[in-house]
């Protein structure tokens, strides 16, 4: 029976470490709720993990009361996040307590390709590590976000045409080979959903939708606290839901997709004759400066996106819709019409009315998600194996930095 007791202890320890990994930091009371373990068990495990230098405990204030916040110890290691956008590449290096140590943004050409972009990303990771006085072998894992549906295992884009220069490239493998570190890839909206559901606006919610409205529109679906990706990673790809049967042909080959109506090109075109050549950031800035034409465009986009999200909300019955991406930076100009369209097109019910809120992490949600993805895939606890003193005596907190942790 000693064996089964020690494996239970290991399992409980893993639950505590996983909860701290997911949420960045939790009080002991929150840990009890998140793990389902008793306060006494949580307290014992936290003490053991502190002794093993895997977690740190510091004083904090929660709901006006003093509490002890448990976070992963900084020295455990680093993670890197890489976010590939329509026009830019963002790379960040953070420690395991979710603190970003260095970050940089580089512009990308309009039709960027995997080989050159991943070269730049690899160089930038090394460069940022150098800046914070660290080495590659301190990096436990790298999370990478792409603006297309991807297969989580290979990191390959699963629908051709959406991100042309990346078709057929096993992205995780390529970057992992260049940096000799494990790399995990996901769709950008899924990463936003991951970050918002673990450390952002949907932290306390089981079922939520994350909508990313920017150069294109995508959604991440959180069910029972987990991001739902679907069999080929296309779950939540609302940018490719048809909204205009007579509309333009989309990058995916279909006609009249949401992206052809509210993607950046579609939003900028009607402003060309009145405002000249604007970027999406210009439109957001001008909207926030009360420019009537830009406000009109953004508000109409909110209505159309809300109509499509309503279909998803009717099917999945989430508690909360979190809105991120650059268009959410216009606040109620975008969110108001979106909320109204959702109100009109989902079943009105009295139990838990659907709420629509801006992303707590703002436009940083996807990058934070990339860091969280890397951390989630990292096994920080050595599994008990056949040490000289039996499985019960294996020290906790030995950091695994080897590859193949998936
Ligand atoms: Zn499409």
From TrEMBL:
SUPFAM superfamilies: Actin-like ATPase domain (SSF53067), Winged helix' DNA-binding domain (SSF46785). Residues 13-66 form the HTH marR-type domain. GO terms for molecular function: DNA-binding transcription factor activity. Residues 382-406 are annotated as: Disordered. Gene3D superfamilies: 3.30.420.40, Winged helix-like DNA-binding domain superfamily/Winged helix DNA-binding domain. InterPro entries: ArsR-like_HTH, ATPase_NBD, HTH_MarR-typ, ROK, WH-like_DNA-bd_sf, WH_DNA-bd_sf. Belongs to the ROK (NagC/XylR) family. This is Transcriptional regulator, MarR family.
